[in-house]
Amino acid sequence: MIATALGLLLVGFVISVPMTALLVRLGARWKTLDSAGAAGHAKVLRGVPNIGGIAIFVSVALPLAGGLALISFGRSDWALMLEPMVEPYVGRMRESLPFGWAFLGGMLVFHLVGLFDDRRALPAKLKLGIELAVAAVLAVHFDARLLVVLDDWGFAGTALSVALSMLWIAGVANAMNFLDNMDGLAAGTAIIAGSLFLAAAIIVDQWFIAGVLALLVGGIAGFLPQNFPLRGGARIFMGDGGSLVIGYVLAVMTIRTTFTETQNPSYALGSAWYGVFMPLVILAVPLYDFVAVSTIRLSQGRSPFVGDQQHLSHRLVDRGLTRRQAVLVIWALAFITGVGGVSLGTVAPWQAALIGVQVVATLLVLGVLEGTLRK
Length: 375
Description:
The protein has 375 residues and is mostly helical. It has a domain at 2-262. It has helices at residues 2-30, 53-73, 77-86, 90-95, 97-119, 124-141, 155-179, 185-203, 207-227, 240-256, 278-282, 284-299, 312-318, 323-339, 349-372.
């Protein structure tokens, strides 16, 4: 399975690299450049195309659609050659077909909403409403739900599970959208988080989830060199058409991943109940920025969905770091906080507490530093 996942990662990368390069040229020719956003959005416009999310979306959606179609409608000669590699997972993949198509459809909706918003800003309430509607369909009709154990409480428990799942999908999608405010920041952080979730899925042989995450990580990796080049500024942005897709994929795949099995002591990711907090640990930094900047905006009497220059990265730059240094610091923090999450469900309670303390302490130190450092 590891070889298959690495192969799919390479597929995503190979699709993304030339497509991103093509979009750099087409974006300049078509004038699909960085846009002002919603009324009141404070940003410095740059003459850079913001359609790079198309490459990320296609890198995941095209191979995924091909695989779903192959399983749904038949097999070809080349698929028969690959069968020994995927045969152990074919049965589970067939069972996942309805969810797979629904997931793909939801990803397309998030992508189109993002692309439209990049060209002509959508009202924040409409945008959020569409995101929640897609999340509701997945949660209600395709069992993409958090904490299904709440079903033991009857209808109220199931309703709470659905509501939490909707908030998680919309929340993570917007957290990645918020984080996309500096060259390479969202892409690099997503590669780190996606790779950690990919490792978890491989450990427990959740092939569909591992395959989707491998395509995502590969697609973003192919995009990153144009978004965070070794020299100079970004040649292309992912835009909302990319950041919303990344957040959506990460959110839904974490919902579908089984991070702990309390009744199975031999489960590879552990049987401790606190293993369910793995996604929060791995996504701690993006969620920190999302909560912090939303709180700042609300305290100023402003909508949390109207952009400004008060994100974590901007606050670090205001305290004396260069923009590239701020991005690298946030990447490092995302790895430091996230890497402990993969083993969360396998460790003793006191060790899990230490992981939690490490994450909280890291974020507290970050808060102190960004609030007290001076130029």
